């Protein structure tokens, strides 16, 4: 099964086939539309002749930031996000020999261990890590023991609250409606 996160078949194929691409898309998923965030890895791959975690980690920071800022930019804040992408790539190279999937495969970890590993990545707070864990479980078939509970509330079956629940244009619209309703409720209670 191919993920449907951007609506662009080539970009979605890259996200499906390359765990690093999926992780970078999740990293970029803030302050821009979800599709824009998950298109970022394909833009980088096109500009670098592939998405190589080692090359990104070793890239000269200013040159990589320029690559990310080249229109169409990888993100609304291309400079700061370029730094975060490189920080994640460096962490993956240093801790997992550049193999992103080792985050959820090394030592046959349970979901809590995977969550701790995700939260240790630059730019991954608790919520982003839980959403990514739910995405792995719901759509990628990576289901460490306890993943639904650890990813809560994003791991709930039938939920329509995050990128983990998006499989087509209709489900994207449902997730957007859920988020809009949650924001309206938060505003009405003064949060």
| Total beta-strand segments | 0
Quaternary class = single chain
Cα distance, first to last residue?
39 Å
Number of helices: 11
Low-confidence stretches: none
CATH architecture designation: Orthogonal Bundle
CATH class: Mainly Alpha
Beta-strand percentage range:
under 5%
In short:
With 191 residues, the protein is mostly helical. It has helices at residues 9-17, 19-28, 34-48, 53-58, 61-69, 78-96, 102-105, 111-119, 126-140, 147-150, 169-188. The chain has 11 helices and no strands.
Overview of this protein structure:
Helix 2 crosses helix 3. The protein is built from 11 helices and no strands. It has 191 residues and is mostly helical. The protein has one domain: Hypothetical protein, domain 2 (Endonuclease III, domain 1, Orthogonal Bundle). Helices cover 63% and strands 0% of the residues. The model has no long low-confidence stretch (mean pLDDT 96).
How is the topology of this model organized?
Layout lengths: L8 H9 L1 H10 L5 H15 L4 H6 L2 H9 L8 H19 L5 H4 L5 H9 L6 H15 L6 H4 L18 H20 L3
Helix pairs in contact: 1-2, 1-3, 2-3, 2-6, 5-6, 8-9
Keywords:
mainly alpha, 11 helices, Endonuclease III, domain 1, 191 residues
């Amino acid at each position: 099964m191919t993920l449907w996160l951007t609506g662009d078949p080539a970009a979605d194929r890259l996200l499906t086939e390359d765990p690093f691409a999926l992780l970078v898309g999740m990293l970029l998923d803030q302050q821009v539309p979800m599709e824009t965030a998950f298109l970022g890895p394909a833009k980088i791959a096109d500009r670098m002749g592939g998405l190589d975690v080692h090359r990104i980690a070793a890239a000269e920071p200013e040159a990589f930031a320029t690559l990310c800022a080249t229109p169409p930019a990888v993100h609304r804040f291309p400079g700061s996000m370029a730094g975060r992408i490189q920080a994640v790539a460096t962490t993956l190279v240093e801790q997992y020999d550049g193999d992103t999937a080792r985050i959820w495969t090394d030592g046959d970890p349970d979901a809590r261990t995977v969550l701790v590993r995700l939260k240790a990545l630059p730019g991954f707070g608790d919520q982003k890590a839980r959403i990514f864990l739910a995405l792995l479980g719901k759509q990628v078939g990576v289901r460490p023991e306890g993943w639904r509970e650890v990813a809560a509330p994003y791991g709930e079956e039938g939920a329509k609250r995050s990128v983990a629940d998006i499989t087509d244009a209709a489900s994207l619209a449902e997730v957007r409606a859920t988020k809009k309703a949650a924001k309206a409720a938060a505003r009405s209670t003064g949060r």
